[in-house]
Amino acid sequence: MNGTPSFINFLDALNAWQLVREARVATGLAAATSFKHVSPAGAAVAEPLTPELVKAYQVESKELTPGAVAYVRARGADPKCSFGDFVAISEVVDVPTAEFLKGVVSDGIIAPGFNARALEILKSKRQGSFIVMEADPAFISPARERRELFGMELVQDRNNHQVTKADLADIVCGTLTPESVRDLLLGLIAIKYTQSNSVGYVFGGQMIGIGAGQQSRVDCTKFAGVKADVWWLHTHPKVLGLRFKVNVKRQDRINARISYIQGDLSPHEERSLREALDSPYDLLRDDERRDWLKRMSGVSLVSDGFIPFRDNIEQAHKHGVSYVAEPGGSVRETDVVDACRGYGMALVHTHLRLFHH
Which of 147, 234, 251, 356 is the most exposed place for a label (fewest CB within 10 A)? Predict the structure, then answer.
């Protein structure tokens, strides 16, 4: 409909569209994702924002419809990585959604439709080069997918399994809440379209940490956990209390907050942060960071392959995980189950291998 998509734009758009279409069906809520380099940086459904997230996501004065809320959440999961993303939304794009997109750095969007005014707003973005693609919700993909690589055509069956609540029926230990069911469904669908190996943390209807493409699953778990911690620390009162000068751009505020959260600033980062703020700042102390992270609980963890060792559960416990969904079937499954029981986590065996290549 608008713009000139590149090869990677098409890869992002087609994977992202499948994610949000499936999440919409599985949860019954508007869904959105922020894609970068053929994996989601974030994905979410339209659950109301808390006052803390309204401030953290810089949408205090914005009108937000369900599609807009879903994308604000999806982009807010990892706002540094979402810089220059490709967007997918399960709903017809309306003016509030287009207005929010107008103010962020993004390459393009795919959605099932656009109202007239929203389309005009998006077509004017990036001096007219913003990519706008319309998806057909009724399209059914062929059962097999083909790709040419190094002169060879590779053929594989498409993973056409639609994730539903039935995939959470085999509860090995613990119990699930309605919120955890929503989060586990979203997480399983998100990692279904994430480069394997992949592990995802989910909370409040949005991915808050995704570890993708690592050779070791525990490295995925650690990497995603670090991202989840950074997301949680965005709601710390000292982070929300940072006061920026009026001329500081949105992305510069995001980058400054992340530098502040991570601490250990380089001289350049320290200078940039000082210049961006309109008052002196006091860095988070290690004890403040630890105390805030201890409040993190009720997080769900999903894995695209079986969890081979209990070290993944040990890492998950550090990041507030209470619910785990994985295929099951590891040789050391008993160790994994014992670890979940020991930490009071619910464990679900999905019997689904969701590797994505």
Answer: 147
